[in-house]
Design goal:
This protein is mainly α. It has a domain at 271-408. It is built from 13 helices and no strands. Helix 7 packs antiparallel against helix 8 (239-265). The radius of gyration is 21 Å and the shape is globular. It binds protoporphyrin IX containing FE. Protoporphyrin IX containing FE binds at residues 42-43, 47-48, 51-52, 55-56, 59-60, 114, 117-118, 156, 159-160, 162-163, 166, 174, 178, 181-182, 185-186, 190.
Length: 418
């Protein structure tokens, strides 16, 4: 699906704040998580605060950093303006903190946080769209990025309209638009972006090739149609359109999992490192979420819906992102600090640039915690949920430590050069 070249890649100093800030937000969100219980209602406003702290501060932050790196690499054109990326992360970080505080305790802060997040995302979208316009051949990749960005734009506009309703008292019917907001940003942007990026990253890190790509192409179409029609369902307030749209999205996720199985079968690298184990847990969690979601939808079971959302977000998103950081950061650091030294002195291997023990600890604490927390939600057990959350909190400290460790690897070499 994609070609990879590093000619247009932006400097590491531009990307690294995204990974540092993202893993810091991740740790803070995880340390707060044990304060919630298995009985926390989906519409509890402190849960909404936490959800945005986690999704904007961690998930979106890291995706933006990774896109800054990957978009020019796969499209083989430079960013329209790479300097935009110096603005995006501070605006996103500050806006996320204000939004979380706004939801949790000070509603008047909400529109201010909302506007900062909105502006940071509009800058991201502007750069991406203007970069896409430089591409001469409109490939499937270009279309994919165009579609996901359109969903993000719609999703955050709906979010902002809801934030105005809460913070300033004017706006839209939240009950009607909340679902569209969630489906657009989580399904239309985060999941579809992960689908697209994984088609570059999984074959690259697992050394797979020669597999059929039909399932992912169909998955992409089905999921995009599902997300688009869900928005139409919200527009006309139609329960049946929303129901059918969700079924289309579930079908798309099923096809994507099939694609992953094809990539897995053709992989040449058999080693079971942290990245590989994280992928197994992440895709396992996605498959489990896909099993639970139709049951929740048809049976209208809130605890099952909450558990499905947990396995999607805390299992699939978290493990895909954190697992890839153990590959991407060493690669970027190596390229920045060691590639000029090749042939002149001994340079480390990528595998030497990963902290083995802390990496393993973060993996096991997070995996056990994620499974226990999800089962706690499913069976309504507060003890299991809180125990799982505490394990995830411990895992997040090891994760943050590992990210800093990988970022600092060989820093003394850089200082010697100056
Ligand atoms: C400008 C950016 C955004 C604004 C202003 C915003 C605002 C909001 C508002 C007002 C709600 C409804 C709260 C309620 O139920 O009363 C909400 C819910 C939600 N938003 Fe956002 N949002 C934004 C971006 C995002 C993004 C990028 C994501 C995901 C990546 C996201 C995920 C969610 C989720 C999952 C919920 C449901 C939370 C729950 O019911 O517990 N939002 N958002």
């Amino acid at each position: 699906m994609f070609q990879v070249s590093r000619e247009f890649a932006p400097p590491f100093s531009l990307i690294s704040p995204y990974f540092t800030a993202g893993s810091l937000f991740y740790m803070v969100a995880m340390l707060i998580l044990p304060m919630f219980g298995a009985d926390s209602a989906m519409y509890d406003i402190s849960l909404v605060a936490w959800v945005h702290l986690f999704l904007l501060g961690f998930v979106m932050m890291i995706i933006f950093g990774a896109m800054a790196q990957l978009v020019p690499v796969v499209l083989e054109v430079g960013h329209f303006s790479v300097d935009f990326y110096y603005l995006i992360w501070p605006l996103l970080a500050a806006g996320t903190v204000l939004m979380a505080l706004g939801f949790a305790a000070f509603p008047t802060l909400l529109p201010y946080g909302g506007i900062m997040v909105l502006v940071s995302m509009l800058i991201f979208l502007a750069d991406t769209i203007l970069t896409l316009r430089k591409v001469e051949h409109v490939s499937l990749t270009v279309k994919t990025i165009g579609v996901t960005n359109a969903f993000l734009l719609l999703g955050i506009l709906v979010g902002f309209a809801m934030a105005l309703t809460i913070g300033a008292g004017v706006g839209i019917d939240i009950q009607r638009w909340l679902g569209a907001h969630i489906v657009l940003v989580l399904g239309g942007f985060v999941t579809l972006t992960i689908v697209g990026m994984s088609m570059v990253l999984l074959p690259m890190f697992g050394l797979s090739h020669g597999f059929d790509e039909t399932p992912v192409k169909r998955a992409f179409k089905l999921m995009s149609i599902g997300v688009g029609t869900y928005f139409v369902g919200a527009l006309f307030d139609s329960e049946s359109i929303r129901f059918l749209s969700l079924l289309a999205i579930f079908g798309g996720v099923g096809l994507y999992l099939w694609q992953i199985a094809l990539i897995y079968k053709t992989r040449a690298r058999k080693e079971s490192d942290i990245w590989f184990k994280s992928m197994m847990v992440g895709y396992g969690a996605l498959a489990f979420a896909l099993l639970l979601a139709p049951i929740a939808l048809i049976g209208r079971l809130e605890s099952v819906a909450l558990a499905a959302a947990w396995f999607l977000v805390m299992g699939f998103f978290t493990f895909l992102i954190n697992g890839h950081l153990f590959k991407i950061i060493p690669f970027l650091v190596w390229f920045e600090r060691y590639s000029p030294l090749v042939g002149k002195q001994k340079v480390p291997m990528l595998a030497d640039m990963v902290p083995k023990k802390p990496g393993e600890f973060q993996f096991w604490f997070t995996a056990v915690g994620m499974a226990a927390g999800g089962l706690g939600l499913l069976f309504g057990s507060d003890e299991l949920f809180k125990g799982g959350a505490a394990f995830m909190a411990a895992g997040s400290v090891f994760m943050f430590y590992s990210v800093k460790w990988m970022m600092n690897f060989g820093k003394n070499i850089e200082q010697e050069k100056q």
